[in-house]
Amino acid sequence: MAMVPTLLASAGLCTAMARGALAASFGVSPNSFTVSGESFQISASTLDGQGFVQFGVLDRGAHASYPEALSGIRSADLYDLCQSVVQDVPVLGPVTLRLTSGSGGTPAHADRLVADSHDLKGDALFHNINIGQDAATVQGVPGVHGEPGGFGEQADTVRIDNLRQQTRSVSAATFRLPGLHLSVQVGSNPCFDADADQGADQGGDDSSGADHDGHGSSGADHGGHHSSDEGHGGHHSSDEDHGGHHSSDEDHAGHHSSDEDDADHGHHRTPGDRSE
Hints:
It contains four helices and ten strands. By secondary structure, the protein is α+β, with helices and mostly antiparallel strands. Strands 1, 2, 3, 4, 5, 6, 7, 8, 9 and 10 form a ten-stranded mixed beta sheet that branches. Residues 193-276 are annotated as: Disordered.
């Protein structure tokens, strides 16, 4: 049962991959089998691991090679494990192969777990982590290391909550699956909705715009201050009304008009107007 769980790539490694730092140092994955190239999902509510390494590799397929981030764990417990792959079948359409384990309080367990993944998400905690270590020198998992000069990292322990992973290959020396349930279903029923996760990530990026809108609301507050000035303008209009009552006395009307000029000048000196 080779299609099973795994681990998350840290931000340091993902950043290095995005910048092409690993392009010249990817070695062939220690997962020595030829991959199908099909991407499948793995999720877990929590992964607890002892001994962690990570570096870039190439998975070899029959007709293509796939750059991946290899994550190796010497000993791993996975709670609420799910693994799924959805494939299109002629006539039937999408068909889902889905595996679950470790949902009864006893986690699934793997020794010398090696997973090659291209998309990973979760909330991770590492202890005693080295980032940027030569991939050929990592020692967290016996026999699992990268090419000399490659970008790598290692840690004593790793914990990942809400693990969401898309991968092309997984292997383990031993893999215990308590409460195993394997099902084949017509239709698409993956472990998680990858499109929804991506949309949530993009929505998080857009939140900065919302923050700017929030700052813009302070402008609305300033507008509120201007409205108070307009309210003062309303009080001046009452002066005009008084001026109307005194219209028989042109001198008094003149005085009131000068008061209106002063009020106008006073309006231009308000703090709200200075903010403009």
